[in-house]
């Protein structure tokens, strides 16, 4: 779908637009807050079910970062004058279920399982990156540059995790999985 340029100047944000956008922003924060809290539990389970010690360490490190991300979202709620509240995130629930299906459909102690867990984790990372990037942009539009900076920090960390998972897959996991 090709975006078309408007021939009129951009519309100024009115107070009612700002209220609606803030509601959307807060809803997005509630969603990602639920996602982070539930992802921490899922990552712990994934770490316990890996074959590769390096992948296990990556999942354990990301569990710690995920807990920090949830705490950062709590801080953002406070900065914008809202109560930290989670709203069930259907997307993350589905991604976690997909990871559980990989665990149940692959053999314990195999690199095929590790390959599948990397795939599941990278889907999670891409969802989180999309969420944090959008929330950062909305925060900027609302004039919350301090919040936007905090969201950017989380976005950067999610990108680093995704990159680390790609490196593990390319370094040996996929190759070893291909000969099992």
Provide the succession of SSEs: HHHHH
* Terminal Cα span: 42 Å
Q: Give the total of beta strands.
A: 0
Regions with little confidence, pLDDT below 50 for 5+ residues: 5-11
Q: What is the quaternary state of this protein? A: single chain
Q: Residue share in helices?
A: over 70%
Backbone structural class: mainly alpha
Strand proportion, as a percent range, falls in under 5%
On the 0-100 scale, what is the average pLDDT? 93
Radius of gyration: 19 Å
- From the spread of the alpha carbons, the general shape counts as elongated
* Count, helices: 5
The main β sheet shows up as:
none
Task: Please describe the structure with a list of short key phrases separated by commas or semicolons.
180 residues, mainly alpha
Question: What features would you describe in this structure?
Answer:
The chain is mainly α. It has helices spanning 15-48, 53-79, 90-105, 111-141, 145-178. It is elongated, with a radius of gyration of 19 Å.
Summarize the structure.
79% of the residues lie in helices and 0% in strands.
Please describe the topology of this protein:
Blueprint: H1 15-48, H2 53-79, H3 90-105, H4 111-141, H5 145-178
């Amino acid at each position: 779908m090709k975006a078309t340029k408007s021939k009129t100047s951009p519309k100024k944000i009115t107070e009612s637009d700002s209220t609606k956008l803030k509601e959307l922003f807060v809803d997005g924060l509630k969603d990602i807050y639920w996602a982070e809290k539930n992802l921490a539990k899922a990552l712990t389970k994934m770490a316990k079910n890996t074959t590769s010690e390096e992948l296990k360490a990556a999942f354990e490190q990301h569990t710690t970062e995920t807990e920090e991300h949830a705490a950062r979202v709590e801080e953002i709620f406070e900065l914008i004058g809202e109560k930290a509240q989670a709203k069930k995130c259907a997307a993350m629930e589905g991604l976690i279920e997909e990871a559980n299906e990989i665990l149940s459909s692959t053999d314990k102690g195999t690199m095929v399982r590790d390959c599948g867990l990397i795939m599941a984790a990278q889907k999670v990372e891409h969802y989180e990156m999309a969420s944090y990037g959008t929330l950062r942009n909305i925060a900027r539009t609302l004039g919350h540059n301090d919040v936007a900076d905090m969201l950017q920090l989380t976005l950067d960390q999610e990108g680093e995790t995704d990159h680390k998972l790609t490196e593990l897959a390319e370094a040996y996991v996929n190759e070893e999985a291909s000969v099992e």
